[in-house]
Here is the input.
Amino acid sequence: MIDKDTIAAGNAHADADLARDYETLGERLDRRGIGIDAIKAKVAAYGVAVPSWGVGTGGTRFARFPGGGEPRGIFDKLDDCGVIHQLTGATPAVSLHLPWDKADPADLRAKAEEVGLTFDAMNSNTFQDQPGQTHSYKFGSLSQADAATRQQAVEHNLDCIEIGTALGSKALTIWVGDGSNFPGQVHFGRQFERYLDATAQVYAGLPADWRLFTEHKMYEPAFYSTVVQDWGTNLMIAQHLGPQAFCLVDLGHHAPNVNIEMIVSRLIHAGKLGGFHFNDSKYGDDDLDTGSIDPYRLFLVFNELVDAADAPGFDPMHMLDQSHNVTDPIESLMSSAMEVQRAYAMALLVDRAGLSAAQDANDALAAQGMLKAAFRTDVEPILAMARRDKGCAIDPIATYRAAGYRAKVAGKRPAVAAGSSGIV
Ligand SMILES: [Mn+2]
Here is the structure.
């Protein structure tokens, strides 16, 4: 973890400027009828989970360039995730991926407690073969034509629930790479029915207080069709399975220019929005850092979430899911967690009554202007003050660099050539 004196030294340097910035922003928001402290309290209470696989350098289909001091296994990963939360105060939970993160649940719980984290949704993996596995997933898992392979995939998901229960997790996320690469390779209907039957067996194994999330993705690794290709199929799955099943929206898993914020609204309407995998994309499932390409879209997604926040039972889970090829993964995840917080804070500033009135009056320019007014507001002082109040870093990335964490752990962690990249 980062030495508390390093955090205090960085904050002492930035404290006076932050106090002034917070005060002047508070005055400006006050003129708009917004109390800055109430916004800060909501931002401070907000958390986004980090994926265990995100703290390793990802790579592309061409190459992976491992950095120094990469985590060697789940316990190193939990150390890194703990640092992210220690500095940002924004990432209280970690999402595990099995079997990559398999370990004794008691040891995992103890380590998580040591670094101040809890466990978010469990992620199963039936998109690659594991050493010693009986049946291959080359041609699919939960939707495989071969019944024994489907059964193996079901049992793996049930194992994830069992391990997750021991960890205090409350959700299972299923993403499958199943699909096809050639027209005619599979019968769309029969493949989907096999998927539904197998996933229903997983659903039947859910504890009463668990949720099951299915994640759609339009292509890759299958390039002609995927069995859960879009939100329409995902919604059919959630409705078929039952009340504990919900749709997970990964921002990168759509065609370019698709209106994701509207998909979010539709899933809210159906009562089936389960959660998010936040990242950003320029061309496809790029797994770029959240908010790095299109922060306005991220804001518009949060605009829908804030709009629906008071709906009964509305409780989507939020997680980052990105792959870091050219940055220090800890820095990217801290930056992304803050981008998500920023989008949330800006969405809280939207004049909802005014927006509603402009919509009803067909005043398009005024309506979009209200969104832009919120989006143009620099909310950084709110985020920074929320961190400072928690004893976290006013500037997490500068503090992380000053602490020399990566160089320190590099001495203990030899570089690994292989390792698990995370593009899910
Ligand atoms: Mn994902």
